[in-house]
Specification:
alpha+beta, 52% helix
């Protein structure tokens, strides 16, 4: 549901860190002395047990650990940019917006998506947008001379109907009790006016979700990681309704359907366009081969042996 594919991966933010540290160190050495180029002592950035850690050591370690991969990514981006310019290929803001919207499917909001990307892969909204821009531009270059017919699109949709079904997403709250009698008591307390989330914190044996009021988050209605007895019962509920006791391997469950939403694959036109793009990419050479050819064409060379992958 949250299949996010970024071209350059987790290290984009580290690139910024390396460059910033390099700039800071250059300014320390070349810009703060008595005149231009006057060396300055390394600034101490941290200490532990009396041992000093200097800015140059931090920079050296960052470059040693991440430098080859980051430099490789920079060359890839520049080769893509040069080739797109040479071929007159461009992307509109709407192209990038549409891809970002597709990536946000399964999240409660745009804000949640960007917060998740920030916490999980360390990328800001601007960095994600740049990453998507180069990914789409590379795909456009790689499929420029490839054709997919309307008949091929229609055949794929006809042969893979399961891929285009509307998916129901369920927001379930869960309380696990040791016995059926305890679960029935939980049901009575809820129907008597007790808050379900509070009951989960007080009575649930599921320590992972109890602190969250029993909230399992958004789940697809065929989620394989939740007991199927629970998912089957949840599919039959209306929002706000409860069910139980439900016998599972962990005890007897009481569930509440907190919310429900259907996730469509888009309009018929959008589905056809997505399938067309997928088939184009399947016919295209591997992206790494395309990048290698672009770098060779535009004479991308890493001069420092220590920065070669």
């Amino acid at each position: 549901m949250r299949n996010i594919k970024l071209l350059w991966g987790l290290t984009a933010c580290l690139l910024a860190a390396v460059l910033v540290l390099g700039l800071m160190l250059t300014r320390e050495r070349d810009g703060n002395g008595d005149g231009p180029g006057t060396p300055e002592p390394d600034r101490v950035v941290a200490k532990v047990a009396g041992r000093e850690f200097k800015l140059s050591i931090l920079q050296e370690n960052l470059i040693h650990k991440y430098g080859p991969e980051l430099l490789d990514q920079m060359l890839n981006q520049e080769a893509i940019r040069l080739e797109a310019e040479a071929q007159g290929e461009k992307l509109s803001r709407e192209d990038v917006d549409a891809e970002l919207k597709r990536m946000q499917q399964g999240y409660d909001s745009e804000e949640q998506f960007y917060e998740s990307m920030r916490s999980q892969v360390g990328l800001s909204k601007e960095e994600i947008r740049e990453d998507v821009y180069y990914k789409l531009l590379l795909e456009k270059l790689s499929t420029k001379n490839i054709k997919v017919t309307e008949e091929e699109v229609t055949a794929y949709i006809r042969e893979h109907p399961e891929e285009f079904q509307v998916i129901s997403n369920l927001r379930i709250q869960l309380i696990v009790n040791q016995t059926a009698e305890q679960a029935r008591r939980t049901m009575e307390l809820y129907k008597g006016g007790k808050d379900f989330a509070q009951l989960a914190r007080e009575r649930s044996l599921d320590t992972v979700t109890a602190a969250e009021g029993g909230d399992l988050g958004w789940l697809e209605d065929n989620d394989p990681f939740v007991p199927q007895e629970i998912m089957k019962a949840a599919r039959g509920l209306k929002v706000g309704e409860v069910a139980g006791p439900i016998e599972t391997a962990d005890g007897f469950a009481v569930i509440r359907l907190k919310d429900k939403k259907d996730q469509s694959k888009g309009s018929a036109e959008q589905i056809r366009e997505n399938v067309r793009k997928m088939l184009l990419l399947q016919k295209a050479p591997p992206m790494q081969d395309i990048l290698a050819n672009l770098r060779s064409k535009h004479e991308a060379v890493i001069l420092d042996p220590s920065l070669q992958k």
